Amino acid sequence: MVASSPRTLQASNDKAHEDVRVAVLGASGYTGSEIIRLLANHPHFRITVMTADRKAGQSIGSVFPHLITQDLPDMVAIKDANFGDVDAVFCCLPHGTTQDIIKSLPKNLRVVDLSADFRLQDILEYEEWYGQPHRAPDLQKEAVYGLTEIWREEIRNAGLVANPGCYPTSIQLPLIPLIKANLIKCSHIIIDSKSGVSGAGRSPKEANLFTEVSEGIHAYGITKHRHVPEIEQGLSDVAHSKVTVSFTPHLMPMSRGMLSTIYVEMAPGVRIEDLHDQLKAYYENEEFVCMLKKGDTPHTRFVRGSNYCHVNVFPDRNPGKAIIISVIDNLVKGASGQALQNLNLMMGYPETTGLLSQPLFP
Questions:
Q1: Using one digit for the tens of pLDDT, what is the confidence trace for 294-321?
Q2: Would you identify the CATH topology of the domain 13-164+334-346?
Q3: Which residues are tagged catalytic?
Q4: CATH class label, 167-329
């Protein structure tokens, strides 16, 4: 997934027993604020820089009152940020703006990018789906895709990690172990996913107004959602052949949460019990991926605010087919929580550090 590179070679774990000084770029967005919330419980990571161009000069408490008790530096414009007081960076900026910024950072910094700018290995595919040329192709070559439970060892030694998208996280976690074990066919995979409105970001948009999304549900990005190539890339890598999927996302009238219902055809001779047993064994020692007991249905409400992913497998009424259901919190395991999990690995700490808060219910 990654080639050796100057940034990777210069990064080291020699600060594993010191405070790690962290910059949060794009601190005024949802993923930025979620990083800050999670870091409040981290014993070793300390925020020294926060940027937000439109909120420069303001405190985080004035933008997000739920963080008012945190003793943090005021936000600054990126051009005014001092990276001499930083060891690692969470980049929570929109796609298209991130490449130039990360390219300009000191090479010794560990970087976790939460945008889509470094997720796709093929820069021509990036241009096709995102409508603009990739402006840091050399940097793309060194980026490691940050699906933690799957690419743990590659992430550990990386200098730049491309944090996965929320939909791809909820989809790849259950599918990759089954594809690796040749238990399902890679053709005709159908994915129906549903997300809370926070997945669309914090920028004001008419389509995301309360009156536009409440008391209803609608599909969007039909056949052309930008997470499609990321999903297919991850599945193809483990299948060692091109995998295509039918993927349709839906917007739900809730703040956060994500549910993916995945329809697959089992390989000849495979039983539904085989799928369940494979996923249970694959994630048996993983803190954040929980295979539920047979018959239990994953609910978004039971992972809310946490870094957990709940998964289960059900028999389809059509013989030889199965239904897989996966739930995450799109802002935590689908974004900021997974980013913190990755940076923990990169800096030599247990990846669960600061992430063991249990889900919020009710």
A1: 999 999 999 999 999 999 999 999 999 9
A2: Rossmann fold (3.40.50)
A3: 166
A4: alpha beta
